[in-house]
């Protein structure tokens, strides 16, 4: 599946699940999409989409007030940023959000 289709499809479904207060299921679906992208280790579109998915998971947790989940996804974003650095890719988390989470 192409990364843009994967993300678009998952974001549509997860947005609907969030509206239905199905946060756990939403995060599970996003995890599945992340795993699909993770099978394409050195392909730039998938590296970008993995970071987009992690950012969306962070947003879901943030909106739910789940600071533990936020810290988990923030750590994953930082870890993936380290790996993506060699390709010039970085997902920035605003400083004010980062401070609130940490």
Number of strands: 0
Helix content: over 70%
- Gyration radius, rounded: 13 Å
Strand % is under 5%
In the predicted model, the low-confidence regions spanning at least 5 consecutive residues are none
Which structural class best describes the helix and strand composition? mainly alpha
Report the order of strands and helices.
HHHHH
Query: How many H/I helical runs?
Result: 5
Give the CA-CA distance, first to last residue: 35 Å
Mean pLDDT, to the nearest integer, reads 85
Write up what this structure looks like.
The protein has 102 residues and is an all-alpha fold. It is 77% helix and 0% strand. It has helices at 3-19, 23-38, 44-64, 67-84, 95-101. The longest helix is centred in the middle third of the chain and has 21 residues, at 44-64. The model has no long low-confidence stretch (mean pLDDT 85).
Provide tags for this entry.
single chain, mainly alpha, 102 residues
What does the secondary structure layout of this molecule look like, with pairings?
Layout: H1 3-19, H2 23-38, H3 44-64, H4 67-84, H5 95-101
Give a brief outline of the structure.
Helices cover 77% and strands 0% of the residues.
